[in-house]
Input
Amino acid sequence: MHIFWVPNHADHITQGEIKDGILRAPFEHPGRIDGALGAMKAAGLPRPLEAPEVGIEPILAVHDVGYIGFLNEAWPRWRAEGRTGDIVPLVWPGRGMRHDTRPLTIDGKIGHYCFDAGTPICRDSWDISYASAQCAVAAADRAAAGEHAFAMTRPPGHHAMRAGYGGYCFVNNAAVAAERMIAEGCERVAVLDVDYHHGNGTQSIFYERADVLVVNIHADPIEEYPYYLGHSDEQGDGKGFGANVNLPLAKGSGWGTYRHALDTAISTIRSFEADALVVSFGADTYEDDPLGTFTLGTNHIGMIADAIAGLRLPSAIILEGGYATDALGDNIAAFLTPFA
Ligand SMILES: [Zn+2]
Output
């Protein structure tokens, strides 16, 4: 087991987020990672290492070049307009408006690429997202070599689309990892997303691909974020038909319901005969998570990992959500221990 992290991840720190109509302290904050390190060390997990930098190419393999250019230049352009707060969108191309224009001003560009109001950009958001993606690449390289690795990424990634951001996510670390495994010689890669929320970005990036299976277990988007993707009738398209599996669960689901979906996910991945696995691990399925409603305990999170590790596939585990900061270290440790 290898663990990669970004030592200066705390440079990505936003002033607040709008939730329930209130501007409040962000749920996705540096304390998530810094608070987890102690519990991970106590559990005997290896010390996190900085990932080697391999450049932008693995990111551009799954993201639109114009979108990545936007992320890179958004903050300087925002500041040049005299803005002092975080970057927050003002307007979106809603139903009936045009999506094919390319606005010249920063507010127009933000609305073009952003899909929610809860994902501010601060000065170092791009740099830290870039560095987090390097962790995903390092974990993928270890998995492609037959080992397990954990990318302790922050900000998370699974909501980021090929050309769009939201849900605290800018670069889709799980997609970067899966595509990297293919580039490193894996013929078939499975992605299992066990975050509480549907990984809309990962699904959409691989939706027409037959060589990457994407399986999601998540709160039903009919009643939970991200609402507009993640339903059970989304099965992939073209060559990718059948290689996308959504297992939405009702809000408030507990272990009995979850275990049933997990069994389905595991047998689906086994039938796919993947060479390697990417796990989008979010601990927001935890019972006390402020953004989740499932009732899983830390023991159940360990049991999810037991079942996944039972696939005996080299695995790149990518950190997604998990906002019960006090318990996050224990939940990460419970999840990684079966792989360690
Ligand atoms: Zn989540």
